[in-house]
Design brief:
heterodimer, A: alpha+beta, Ubiquitin-like (UB roll), five-stranded mixed β-sheet, 24% helix, 29% strand, B: Aldehyde Oxidoreductase, domain 3, Rossmann fold, Oxidized Rhodanese, domain 1, 3 domains, eight-stranded mixed β-sheet, five-stranded antiparallel β-sheet, 17 helices, 23% strand
Amino acid sequence: MPRLRLKYYALLREQAGCSEEQVETAASDAASLYGELAARHGFSLPREQLKVAVNTEFADWSRVLADGDEVVFIPPVAGG
Amino acid sequence: MSAFAFNREPLDPAALAAGLADVAAGGYASFEGWVRNENEGREVQRLDYEAFEELALKEGERIVAEAVERFGVRGARCVHRLGELALGELAVWVGVSSGHRAEAFAACRYIIDEVKHRVPIWKKEHYLDGDSGWVNCERCAEAAHSHAHGHAQPHAHEAGGHAHAGPPAFDYSRQMALREVGAAGQRRLAGASVVVVGAGGLGCPVLSYLAGAGVGTLHVVDADTVDPSNLHRQPLFSLADTGRPKAEVAAERLSALNPGIRVQPHVTRFSADNAAQLVALGELVVDCSDNFATKFRVNDAAVLADKPAVLASVYQYEGQLQVVRPDADGSCLRCLWPEATRDGLVGNCAESGVLGPVPAVLGGLQAMEVLKLLLGLPGQLRDEVLVLDLLSLEQRRLRAPRCGECRGGTCRRIAGLAPEPEEDLELALELGEAIAGGYEIIDVREFDEAARDPLGWDGARLWPVAKLLAEAPGDLDPARRYLVLCSHGVRSLAAAQHLRAAGIAAAYSLAGGLRRQSRRAAGG
């Protein structure tokens, strides 16, 4: 199973209770990884409302994840 | 013939002296500054003079007028060379004609000393070893000039009260000393006009630094008034400003900071009706707003006007920065977020909290990107989003390429500027009145929030906003009236909007949220 480094921002960081973690996952792509994490951490944001970046590039949710990838979840923020 | 002038051609002292000829003058004194072959131990080969001419001419004329008035001389003039000068050439000439010699000498000395200190002129020395460097005349060296000067010089003006007639001139020397800025960059900034949407946590640093940099015209757009809860992160305001429009207070403070620029307040929301007009006022727009609706509107208006927009947002200890470049085929906010994000899903500063330096850092970065754009500096952020975590001090630059929908400078996802939400969406009511008035109450706070701070009335439906947005209208009755509430009225507004769109015509949001309630329904 690929081992991934995850990084959370904003609301996701709060709900996950940490800003980063390492996981081993059977998730085949970014979308199913988010589904897994949402269930585990109780993420309230629907996937459509956030962005995923893999190795410093914004990626599609269908992106297949490989061992060692850094996956960053970014909700939009509006504070000013 | 103006009293102070620049000349790109060699100066002719005889002709200049003749210009002051006056049969009533018993004396004439002049000073000539020449290009010398050495400075601080380095051999100089030639030098270039540059000036921020618009400002320099005004300041130079002021100095000559001061000398005439102070010393009672009959005529005075100063001419400064610009451009490339060889060794031995005449760089600056001062001439004074007067009834008596003492005043002529004193006025001449006064003019050259003040010009050296106060007029923004820079010289670049080219050294024999092939190196070169900008030398900041004397303006840089002495912040406390007028004080020290007043005591040290024989022509000290204590007799006449204060040393200078008016306040000191704004001094850009520290930034003009930068090779990439110089006089040309300063002129560029003086001619620039920038629209800043939002004068809050991001807007305060953006406006302060752009005013300080000498951006000629700043338009400040904000409909809000100063609230004591703003002050920890909005240092343009003070407690005494409470209740006053932010745009107006900001304009006052910025004009005091730099009287040489124009600051235009616009006490209005950046709405679909005025977005195009407001964006047309500047060559670029800076989004310092605190809600998604405005951020997307700024993006869309900038893309439609083919102008750059510098956007930032903060959340608690984090921030994001993006520069939209429709004028340079760059990506826009909708390349990243094709569907405009709804307000209410993720918290704002009021609901989630924010530490003051977070918007200060992000606003500082925005000001930096604006100056990079205006001055054509390298390293401009483009097709990337900068994500900053100020707790871990980690930053990431995430590539956000232009989407396939953006063609020919416009984005097909932007049909036009989004219309305003319904005007009557918010109700300012006491909860008790609403219940008595037959409204069904929908509490869109999170379960733990509601448990911590109960309504004190169990007739409300608890429906956290994310669930509501995903599930509504559910079993709601289009014929009934609903009042949606949360702690500050932001999430409830988004939820009420969503309910309206989902066919619930009489959905309203509790204005200001529970925070504004004077008492709870059952609490009395």
